[in-house]
Amino acid sequence: MFRYTLTPRQDDILRFLVHHHRQTGLIASVREIQKHFNFSSSNAVAGHLRALEHKGYLARSKGKARSLTFSVRSSDAAIDADHGGEVLAWKEDPTQLDLGTLVAMEQSGDDKRSESTVQSATEAELDRATANLTSIQLDARTRLVRGDALDLLARMPANSITAIVTDPPYGLIEYDDTNHGKMREGRGGVWRIPPKFDGAQRSPLPRFTVLTEKDRDRLYEFFRLFGKRAIELLVPGGHLIIASNPLLSTMTFRALMEAGFEKRGEVIRLVTTLRGGDRPKGAEQEFPQISVLPRSCWEPWGLFRKALSQKTVAENLRVWSAGGLRRISSEEPFKDFVECPPARGVELELAPHPSLKPQRLMRYLVRASLPLGRGIVLDPFAGSGATLAAASAVGYASIGFERDAEYLGMASKSFAGLKALRA
Ligand SMILES: C[S@@+](CC[C@H](N)C(=O)[O-])C[C@H]1O[C@@H](n2cnc3c(N)ncnc32)[C@H](O)[C@@H]1O
């Protein structure tokens, strides 16, 4: 279990070792590290290597004088760091991989150590964050709490969460008792079945065009209050990554800004849905060439940040492990565009939630939310637990809230399966 955060320099050295190995197939020698970082003596390199050892990222190889065995994050990389030493065992470093490889690696299942060793927060940190809540444990790093998000947020200690990644009820009314009940009974309300065009059975989708002015006021107030509570428990520089819908996002995002968040951008998910695009109701024949609303082909995810407490992002990262977004690899930054179709059949079979988000998308977003891979991710509207499964799949500690008993049960059941999927 990782209890310590690396300093930027130590992190750089670890990354250099991994990168060097990937490029050359060889382990960088002390001299090569010294040259690369322009250290004046090999003692400085030795000091950093000792610190990495102390922090559990590498270990002395038993019975081999002068040699070191590295354990990079998940303990998947074990390398002999002695001059010209041979590779004892090697798996890629999750901090350097593209998502596909990362996910495949996490699911290889042949390394049970990852379950206990890859952890972005300690048990004590999880205990502190959930001290006033009754949680169930989904695995060593994941907790789920039943209850109303606004109530539960107010009961969490300040600075206990590093990032929030969530897919909330976009229009609020779709998950209220009346409409949600109607959806479950399969009769009307804001949920409607998209028209059939290929004979396939469609799942119901909520219609946000039916929101009244009063609904909109309530929605704005809900997200303003949510934002205020979320900001309290996030560490300085902590990110909120939150899903919305093109019809409502302007309002939701504005409420979050009023609550004190800085808007840092939006991640656009390209996804063809069956929402919108219909002809005027009751006059389809008369106006065959008209769409009342565009067919929705993208989904906005608002990217917000709590103010830094330090002067620079670098300093804030050192103090709070927050303030930036984790890169996809050292060569590739995190990007605000992702193409990801709706959840596939196998995911829906595991977790038949009406708003299920695919693992591929959630792992992409969740992974970016902890810039140093340190801290706890919170999803206050967990649904079937897709965010929590994604967090655990990339080795992050997480906490989820859900108020609906059926979805809570679904999350407990589907968690292991979703987490084990190749996304
Ligand atoms: C859009 S869905 C999230 C689905 C999730 N992304 C998934 O993949 O399963 C929103 C969830 O929030 C829950 N919810 C709505 N209002 C809530 C509240 N005030 N507190 C806690 N959960 C709430 C709903 O029951 C629903 O499961």
Mind explaining what this structure looks like?
The protein is α/β, with parallel strands linked by helices and 423 residues long. It has 2 domains: 8-93, Winged helix-like DNA-binding domain superfamily/Winged helix DNA-binding domain (Arc Repressor Mutant, subunit A, Orthogonal Bundle), CATH 1.10.10.10; 116-420, Rossmann fold, CATH 3.40.50.150. It has helices at 8-24, 30-37, 42-54, 99-106, 113-117, 123-129, 149-154, 177-185, 213-233, 249-258, 313-320, 345-350, 359-369, 386-393, 405-420; strands at residues 58-60, 68-70, 135-139, 142-146, 161-166, 191-192, 205-206, 234-243, 262-270, 298-305, 337-339, 376-379, 397-402. The strands form 3 sheets. The chain has a 9-stranded mixed beta sheet with strand order 3-4-13-12-5-8-10-9-11, sandwiched between helices. β12, α14 and β13 (397-402) form a beta-alpha-beta unit. The longest helix is centred in the middle third of the chain and has 21 residues, at 213-233. The model is unreliable at 72-117 (pLDDT under 50). Bound molecules: S-adenosylmethionine. The site of S-adenosylmethionine has 20 residues, from α7 and β13.
Q: On the 0-100 scale, what is the average pLDDT?
A: 82
Question: How much is the radius of gyration in Å?
Answer: 23 Å
Binned strand content: 15-25%
User: Which architecture of the largest domain does the CATH hierarchy give at level 2?
Assistant: 3-Layer(aba) Sandwich
Q: Which series of helices and strands comes N to C?
A: HHHEEHHHEEHEHEEHEHEEHEHHEHEH
Overall strand count: 13
Low-confidence runs of at least 5 consecutive residues: 72-117
Q: What's the end-to-end separation, in Å?
A: 25 Å
Q: From the helix content, strand content and strand pairing, which structural class follows?
A: alpha/beta
Biggest sheet features: 9 strands, mixed
Approximate helicity band? 25-40%
* Distinct bound molecules: S-adenosylmethionine
CATH homologous superfamily of the largest domain?
A: Vaccinia Virus protein VP39
Strand order of the largest sheet: 3-4-13-12-5-8-10-9-11
Give me the CATH fold name of the largest domain.
Rossmann fold
Please give the domain count.
Answer: 2
Assigned CATH class of the largest domain: Alpha Beta
Number of helices: 15
Shape by Cα distribution:
elongated
